[in-house]
Amino acid sequence: MKYTASLVKLNIDERISARRAEALSRGIPVADDETLNFLLLMLDATKPKRILEIGTAVGLSSVAMLLQCPSARLTTIELEEDRYLEAKQNFSDFGVTDRVNAHLGDAGEILAMMDGEFDFVFLDGPKAQYEKYLFDLKRMMKTGALLFADDVLLYGWVSGEEPTPQKRHSIVDKIRSYLDVVTSDKELITSVLNVGDGVALSVYKPQNNR
Ligand SMILES: C[S@@+](CC[C@H](N)C(=O)[O-])C[C@H]1O[C@@H](n2cnc3c(N)ncnc32)[C@H](O)[C@@H]1O
Fold first, then answer.
1. pLDDT tops 90 at residue 120
2. DSSP string, 57-98
3. Which domain holds residue 29?
4. Substitution site in 66, 113, 124, 174 for ligand 1 pocket (most atoms within 8 Å of beta carbon)
């Protein structure tokens, strides 16, 4: 037996697993099992009360996070209207609507206008924009908040383990820039982990503690 990431058996509601598989079959992007498992582990360890998610898709990671954290509230942002509407239906089906604040629109614009305090951020929207979002995310993160950024190794292109296809150089450069910023920011403690397609975990430790 090989003890590898493929051993991950997601411990989530079977109805979520079924909807994740069905969404994937329609080409809807959802976090892979290894990443979702690690995300739920981190949520269980940190027990956040306020979660912010960038990139709702059809709301299945949102539902999984809320079921893992029964006393948490979640704010989530999605650009595509059909996905946003399907997410709202999923929130209703899983009985979490009253704990969700779902936004439809561009995350950059919404974050810039948003106020709030979060103790956990799941950054899973457009990868090229991660660095741009950082200013507003830090503005709304509490001391000790965890920033969980997904897909930061992108098929091994970012680390250089795999050659980057010609058309993907721009996004790879932007993710590298995000990693440069979060690993050199004195207010963040960051580790980049080879989980799923790469996760950057950052803890926010501002100089003048809030
Ligand atoms: C990887 S998927 C999210 C998957 C979801 N978190 C899950 O695990 O089930 C990324 C989502 O971000 C959305 N997105 C892309 N650009 C966006 C933007 N500028 N603002 C908000 N959402 C955006 C996409 O439509 C897509 O549904």
1. yes
2. TTSHHHHHHHHHSTT-EEEEEES-HHHHHHHHHHHHHTT-GG
3. 5-204
4. 124
